[in-house]
Specification:
Layout (H helix, E strand, L loop, with lengths): L1 E3 L9 E3 L4 H18 L3 E4 L14 H4 L4 H17 L4 E4 L5 H10 L2 E5 L1 H9 L22 E4 L8 H8 L2 E2 L2 E2 L3 H13 L8 E2 L31 H19 L8 E4 L4 E6 L6 E6 L5 E3 L7 E5 L5 E4 L6 E3 L4 E5 L12 H4 L6 E4 L6 E8 L3 E9 L4 E10 L2 E8 L8 E9 L2 E9 L1
Parallel strand pairs: 3-4, 4-5, 5-6, 6-9
Antiparallel strand pairs: 1-2, 7-8, 10-11, 11-12, 12-17, 13-16, 14-15, 14-17, 18-19, 19-22, 20-21, 20-23, 23-24
Helix pairs in contact: 1-3, 5-6, 5-7, 6-7, 7-8
Length: 436
């Protein structure tokens, strides 16, 4: 059942013999147990390309080939899962030959679609490498929308990080500027979530998470940055992406199979066709202004979903003037304009500029914070009865991200709830920490 296969492809230390009846019995018992006992709604199989005994490492002719033994193993596993729950999801991290992936898609499985490189090239302003058409299942020749496209994942670099470190510029327009980069992330979302088919958003992408996957290391903890909600442009990105995702839920046009994409140039467009409403998404991914012909499906009035504005299209071949980073989601039916307000009262009502991680904690925690300006930072820790037990004077810190560690392993603190008061200039925030 178990064998050591360090010389095989797709192996992570010890591996199972996937052709063994014992392995197959074990796998089936595990998958049915979690569905029956805990009502799991499906499985995402990591390293699915490894469900084979075929050796192809270093053999160019076999590396990407259609592996019939792997197809048999995966189909057998999926069919057993569906015999327990016909509605269960089966998702594969595959990256195999397209003919093999198409086979799984036709059978009803979903597969990961990595478009990280092309999306971050697009948001950076590198037009020559910005064609992200492979996020479209049709570009693979598939008949079913079973491609799970993603701009970011646990294996890929953050798009926002690439913007800030490698973004292009022209004159005063600079993608390395945080506000500009976040607006381009909005545009990326407009050209990602509107593409029919399932999508994956990675933790924090909706707020413009901008810490490299390699900081401090690729497999290290990357805590969520709750303070990003207090950054107005990050909050706006969150609201824009939410509004776009709501379109997928509320209107059949955003789930249509009758659509096309033009994404090879700086001016990009998506056309969604539906009997109730047509949609045209347009955007300029260059760092210079362009004149772009989106080829609207019909003449008449079109409505900008995110702004509530409208344009009258008299000629479907007339070009639009688009500034760098400008984008629009036009519909032939006027929809309710989403609330994208990021007023001061909303973003600073609770002065949420800091967080603690890990929390709960058993020997240490770190206080993360984002400072909009240089400030004197002081942290005080109290028992729930108000008794101060520790304090940290961090001194004057510069604007930006900071992490301040607090170790309490030698303080013999009882398990329970503690209150931390963080002061930074005229900002104050109280954080509850659970010590276990």
């Amino acid at each position: 059942m178990v064998q050591y296969r360090s010389y095989y492809d797709f192996n992570v230390c010890y591996d199972m013999n996937h052709d063994s009846p014992d392995t197959r019995y074990f796998v089936d018992r595990v998958t049915e147990f979690w569905i029956q006992q805990f009502h799991f709604d499906g499985y995402r199989f990591d390293l699915a390309k490894g469900f084979t005994q075929t050796y192809s490492l270093g053999n160019v002719s076999l590396w990407g080939h259609y592996d019939s033994s792997r197809v048999y193993n995966i189909e057998r596993m999926a069919n057993h899962i569906w015999s327990i729950d016909t509605n269960a999801y089966v998702i594969l991290e595959m990256f195999a030959d397209n003919s093999e992936e198409q086979h799984y898609s036709n059978d009803g499985m979903m597969l990961w679609g990595n478009v990280n490189y092309n999306y971050y090239m697009a948001t950076m302003g590198n037009v020559s490498a910005s064609n992200f058409s492979s996020v479209n299942y049709k570009a693979h020749g598939w008949s079913k929308p079973h491609l799970i496209g993603y701009m970011e994942s646990h294996d890929e670099e953050r798009v926002m990080y690439k913007n800030l470190t490698s973004g292009y510029s022209s004159g005063t327009y600079n993608v390395k500027d945080t506000a500009t980069a976040l607006r381009r992330m909005e545009m990326a979302g407009a050209f990602f979530y509107t593409v029919p088919g399932p999508k994956m958003a990675w933790m924090g992408g909706e707020l413009g998470y901008d810490i490299s996957i390699n900081n401090p290391c690729r497999t290290c903890s990357h805590p969520f940055k709750w303070n990003y909600y207090s950054r107005p442009n990050s909050l706006r990105l969150y609201k824009v992406w939410s509004a776009i995702i709501n379109l997928r839920n509320d209107y059949p046009a955003f789930r249509t199979t009758n659509f096309n994409m033009q994404t090879s140039q700086a001016g990009k467009s998506i056309h969604l066709n539906n009997s109730a409403m047509n949609v045209t998404i347009v955007g300029n991914f260059d760092v210079n202004a362009i004149s772009f012909n989106p080829v609207f499906q019909n003449t008449g009035w079109w409505y900008d979903y995110l702004t509530g504005d409208s344009i009258e299209v008299l000629n479907t071949t007339s070009p639009l003037a688009l500034e760098p980073g400008e984008y629009h989601i036009y519909t032939t039916v006027k929809l309710s304009t989403p609330n994208l307000s990021i007023g001061i009262a909303e973003t600073e009502a609770e002065d949420n500029f800091a967080y603690a991680f890990p929390n709960p904690a058993n020997s240490f925690t770190s206080f993360g914070m984002y400072l909009s300006k240089s400030s004197n930072v002081r942290i005080e820790i109290y028992r729930i009865n108000g008794q101060k037990i520790d304090e940290i004077d961090a001194g004057r810190l510069s604007p930006g991200e900071h992490m301040i560690d607090w170790s309490f392993a030698d303080k013999e603190l009882a398990s329970g709830l503690y209150i931390c008061r963080i002061s930074a200039g005229n900002q104050t925030q109280h954080i509850k920490i659970v010590i276990d």
